[in-house]
Amino acid sequence: MTALGLAVLDLAGTTVTDAGIVEDAFTHAVVREGVEEGGARHDRMMRYVRDTMGESKITVFRHLFDGDEETARRANSAFEEGYAQMVAAGRCAPLPGAREAIEELRAQGCAVVLNTGFSPRTRDDLLASLGWTGLADAVLSPADAGRGRPYPDMVLTALLRTGAPSVEAVAVVGDTPYDMRAGRAAGAGLVAGVLTGGQQAEDLRAAGADRVLGSVAELPALVRESARVPRPATVS
């Protein structure tokens, strides 16, 4: 394994626990658009939301409303409003050991970029509520990179922002299959799933995880281990 010099970490479910407010904020948004909570259409929508957890939220709304861009954007704004209210009510918290892991990685010389399917506004509100503004080397949303997961854009943008030497030196860590697919698409040297978001280990491995960790708190040990692995001898 190449020595890891950049960790690209997901937010909700990986470094932060949000007590189900993503689904609650989606419900807030679709009800605003006339979808009956608890009805058959709402249930179908929530199944899709769960299946695509980790994807850009505006992309999810475009699917939910059959490509109607105006409705999707209006619903996305309502999502952001609802999520912000729930964050302000104290429903988000760092996962145990997450802040310490980020600080330890950076102390080891490994850059850290936080990435998410949230818009920059929602992401920044969340980080401010946790006191995490400035904790990482950079924070990215799909709007900062081009496309969201499962595309590799945010991972590759993180590499360019931090000056990591190669994709093989990048670790991508997340709690959803979409995180794993993005890491694989980017060619990351390590793609690791975590079990703190509710996904099963076999689903993360099927989506491309090299390793499945109990939590992000285990990542600094893997980075230290990568630095100790001898590089293959070159043949002249």
TrEMBL record:
Spell out the coiled coil positions from the record. Answer: none
Pfam families the UniProt entry points to: Hydrolase
Which InterPro entries does the UniProt entry name for this protein?
Answer: HAD-like_hydrolase_sf, HAD-like_sf, HAD-SF_hydro_IA, HAD_sf, PhnX-like
PANTHER family with a match to the protein in the record: PHOSPHOGLYCOLATE PHOSPHATASE, PHOSPHONOACETALDEHYDE HYDROLASE
Q: Which NCBIfam families match?
A: HAD-SF-IA-v3, PhnX-like
Protein known as: Phosphonatase-like hydrolase
| Protein's organism | Streptomyces albiaxialis
Q: What are the top taxonomic ranks of the organism?
A: Bacteria, Bacillati, Actinomycetota, Actinomycetes, Kitasatosporales
